[in-house]
Here is the input.
Amino acid sequence: MSTMNTWDQFWYYLVHNGSYILSQFTRHFLISIYGVLIAAIIGIPIGILIARHKHLSATVIGIANVIQTIPSLAMLSIIMLGLGLGVNTVIVTVFLYSLLPIIKNTYTGMENVDRNILDSGKGMGMTSFQVLYMVELPLSLSVIMAGIRNALVVAIGITAIGAFVGAGGLGDIIVRGTNATNGGAIILAGALPTALMAIISDWVLGFLQRKLESRG
Here is the structure.
């Protein structure tokens, strides 16, 4: 019976606070996207660089691995000391956690390109720049997309704890629920859209990844 009551309360909360939940959903998604996008802009060139200079790969991937082992709440707290409360702290945290899958997958994708295809491109008179943008990147794109896909799903989870540093998002609704006397319905109103966002993002990027693989 209590479960039924909780679900009744959930639907009631959803109907009466739909615009608030939608605004926090949008805020949550944008924070996650910004962090992953910045990581892609920086991480993909780093992945290309270490594929070109393999002696750097162990060090760079090792540093990204170390970042990944730091608990997300601890990372938020450390960054908060420099940037203060708010959205920027969460975006930087998401950026740092997104680096490893993006760098690693870019490196792996570049490494897996058939050397014979590269030799053919060079034999046709292509410059190194042309080989990169016309051969290597298109053939690596599905692997790079897999890294971005993993990064975004993780980012959505990390952004949820951004409520602890005043960033808002769906985590803010979950925190409200934990502070309420009978907050199960409020927690569901934050947790279910968060899970839905992660599932949809994973499906859409997975679909794009498969499309890129079939083209390759």
User: Anything to note?
Assistant: The CA atoms of residues 110 and 204 lie 24 Å apart.
